[in-house]
Amino acid sequence: IESIKKLEFSLTHKLVDGKPFPMFVRGVKAELQIDSSVFRGHSLYIFSQLLSRVFNLKVQINSFVDLVVKDYSSQQELYQCSQNVGGKTLL
Fold first, then answer.
1. What is the pLDDT of residues 38-64, one digit of tens each?
2. In this structure, are residues 45 and 13 in contact, taking their beta carbons and an 8 Å threshold?
3. At 76, phi and psi to the nearest 5?
4. DSSP per-residue letters across 38-74
5. The model's pTM
6. Dihedral through CA 43, CA 48, CA 49, CA 53, nearest 10?
């Protein structure tokens, strides 16, 4: 928890492959800046996936959360967690 330096939210939208035609879905982009030196091995990946899962459980129906994890010091993107709406992967 102490490794979290900054968390920002903004609105976004993604394309869902639907039948009979694709459609856009509104969602929230969460940008998490973290001190990656605190984590060892795969623990940062597991922490990112856990946060993504928690955010997606709390989001409104027909919406999503796009979690992007960046290193606080270098601003390099470390992970972008996959999103889904109703079990369907977004494009």
1. 888 888 888 888 888 888 888 777 788
2. no
3. -80, 135
4. G--TTHHHHHHHHHHHHHHHHSPTT--EEEEEEETTT
5. 0.77
6. 140
